[in-house]
Structure formats: structure tokens, C-alpha cells
Amino acid sequence: MIGGEPFRTELLAGKTAFIAGGTSGINLGIAQAFARAGARVAVAGRNADKAAAAVAILRAEGAQALGQSMDVRAYDAVERALHETHDRLGPIDIVISGAAGNFLAPASGMSSNAFRTVIDIDLIGTFNVFRASHRFLNAPGASLIAISAGQAVSPVMHQSHVCAAKAGINMLVKVLAMEWGPSGIRVNAISPGPISETEGMARLTPTAADKAAWTQKIALRRFGEKADVANMAMFLASHSSNYVTGAIFGCDGGWTLGDSSGAIPAPATEKAR
Ligand code: NAP
Ligand code: COA
């Protein structure tokens, strides 16, 4: 396997994690890694069937797991889900905010509501999840992790909504880290690059040619694995990162470094080798 192997550890034994958007894809990969590491895990998304299927996967890992149906755009529903997690699984040590929406559309082909929808899910959803979690946290010691994206720092055509939303998330993370640091609450973000076998990349690279074009722009020349992001989440969720807060961690194979596909010719000395 070229991608990261999942951690085999008891690093999160006895911890409770709440994962918004944890019912599929990258965030479910994180939920599975947390479950294997001994955490009790609640996952939440809109679709109740998806949540139930995710819970079955987490229970098969031996974890105490809870599935919830809620929309991150509805603050009261988010708060109810966190309250239930606290009551059933205990004070919350780890919160992941990973719910997101994405589609390719030029700004001129996007309604105001289309733009707002992604801002609502990604950015306001992250505010809702973190804000509502505050009173249910096991603090000091709690770790909050937003799932951002490289689009926060690298502009991408037909992604104005996602670029704006994820840039907002990066700044929200830094301000919350300052405001909640004195209570011993750490707030960080993971910024994944293109990750294989995900809904996000299925939407951004619908054809093999699209996928090849994206791959050419990644320094490591391959998409990442869900386990790569899960490994970084393990670090940020555990005491291994006790002195880390307000940081945005790229997990993107060098995608945000810029186009490294060779448009500028190599110098002669390089060519001679
Ligand atoms: P995914 O499988 O579609 O996961 C999205 C999750 O969020 C699902 O659990 C979904 O469940 C939930 N969700 C969506 N809208 C919601 C809402 N309004 N309220 C509550 N839950 C909602 O996507 P993914 O590709 O793995 O992406 C996961 C995260 O990684 C996202 O934050 C994305 O921006 C980020 N990311 C992904 C990539 C990539 O390569 N895929 C790259 C960079 C960043 P329901 O549909 O049931 O609500
Ligand atoms: N191009 C342009 N506009 C689009 C669009 C597209 N491909 N897809 C949706 N929209 C517009 C809709 O037309 C609507 O605008 P309107 O009211 O002016 O017509 C607006 O976006 C909201 O769409 P709607 O379908 O009502 O939103 P929703 O809340 O049901 O779903 C989405 C949210 C659109 C983000 C949907 O794709 C989704 O649920 N995504 C979650 C999964 C996902 O994106 N995973 C990848 C994560 S990186």
C-alpha cells in the first residue's frame, strides 16, 4: 500500500468523539480509525440510513457507536445531537466538523442560493458544530478539528463557493483557538488534497482525463487515501498534539504547492543527468 496505514493503537481509549459528516467518505474513515483506537464515536449526517450503516461499521470495529440524523445548517438540531452524544457516550473529548457540499459551477452559472448553500453547510455548519459543542466538551483537554480543503488557499476555477467557505473555516479555526485556548480547548484543521474513492473527487474529476489532469498537479503524483487523513486526525485528536492549536495541517501530497507538472523546462544540468 502506497498510502498511509491506519494506526493500530489504544491512543483514544476512553475518549468520546462526535463527527459531523461522519457517515461517509473521509470522515467515516476518521471515525473508523478512532473506533479502532478505543474511542466511543457518534457520527451525524442528514440521511438516517447512511448513519445507521456507518454505526454498523463502527460497531464491527468493536466500538460503542451512535448514529444521528441532523443538518448542520440547523443549529438546534446540531445542539440536540451533541447533547444526546454527551448523555449517551459521555463528555465530548473530540469534535470533527467535516460536513460539506460541493459541485462544479462557474460563478456566472450559480444562483445566489447555490453559493449560499455551500457557505451554509461548510462554514456556518462548522461554526454551528463547534459553537454548540462548547458546553458539552470535556475541557481542559478537548480537541476540535475542522475538515478544510486546499481550496482555502489555492483558488480553483468553478469552486468560488468552496474556496470562500473553506478559507472562512481556516480563519474561524484560528480565532476559536485564541478564544478557547485559555480553557484548554485546542482547535485545528486538516486540509486534505485530492483523496481517492470519495464523493468529493467523484464530483471534481468525473472523467479519467480530469483525474489525470489533477494528478499532474500533485507533487507526489497520486491521490491520497482516506487513511492518510485519518492518521493526521489521530495525531490532532490525541495527547501527541497537546501543544498544537490554531494550525491548519495540509494532507495533500503537495497539491497546494502549485502546479508542478513541468511547464517550466528543467535547467540544462538537470536535463544532462
Ligand atoms: P462525503 O462522502 O460526501 O461526506 C460528506 C458527509 O457530510 C456525509 O456524511 C454527508 O451525509 C454529510 N453532510 C453533507 N451535507 C450535510 C449537512 N447539510 N448536514 C449534515 N451532514 C451533511 O464527502 P468526502 O468527499 O468524503 O468529503 C468529506 C470532507 O472532506 C468534506 O469536508 C470535504 O470538503 C473534505 N475534503 C474532501 C476532499 C476529497 O478529496 N474528497 C478533499 C479536500 C477536502 P449526508 O449526505 O447523509 O448528509
Ligand atoms: N450547479 C449549479 N447550481 C447547483 C448545482 C450545480 N451542479 N447543484 C446544486 N445547485 C444549486 C441548486 O440549483 C440550488 O439553487 P436554486 O435554489 O437557485 O436552484 C442550490 O444549489 C441548492 O441546491 P439543493 O439541491 O436545494 O441543496 P441541498 O441542500 O439539497 O444539497 C448540495 C446541497 C447541492 C451541496 C448537494 O450537492 C449535497 O447534498 N452535497 C453533499 C455531498 C457532497 O457534496 N459531498 C462532497 C463533499 S466535498
From TrEMBL:
Domain of life: Bacteria
An annotated GO BP: fatty acid catabolic process
Any coiled-coil regions, as ranges: none
Nucleus in keyword set: no
Molecular function terms, GO-annotated: 2,4-dienoyl-CoA reductase (NADPH) activity
InterPro entries: DECR2-like (IPR045017), NAD(P)-bd_dom_sf (IPR036291), SDR_fam (IPR002347)
Alphabetic keyword roster: NADP, Oxidoreductase
Similarity annotation: Belongs to the short-chain dehydrogenases/reductases (SDR) family.
Protein name: SDR family NAD(P)-dependent oxidoreductase
